[in-house]
Amino acid sequence: MICLSVRRSIVLSTCFHINRRTDSKHKHAIALYTxxxxxxxxxxxASDLEDWLQNLLFLQHGQDLAPxxxxxxxxxxxx
Length: 79
Fold this sequence. Notes:
Elements: E1 17-21, E2 29-33, E3 38-42, H1 46-61
Antiparallel strand pairs: 1-2, 2-3
Keywords: Repeat
GO biological process, one term: insulin receptor signaling pathway
GO molecular function, one term: insulin receptor binding
C-alpha cells in the first residue's frame, strides 16, 4: 500500500453529485462535484471504481438510506 499525504478533505454530504467520470486520460475515474469545484479520483480497474463509488454514495447518503435502497448519485442536493 502506498501512503500519500492528504491534500484536501471533502465532506461527502456537501457534494451535490458523485458519479463515474469518463475522459480521454483516465478510463476509471469518479468525480465529486461540490459547489465550488470538481474533484476526481482515478482508480486502477472497473471493479475498484464500482467499490469506491458504492462506498462513497453510502457515506454521502448516511442515515437517509433505507434498507435495500439502491444507491444513486444525489443530484442537485446542495447543503
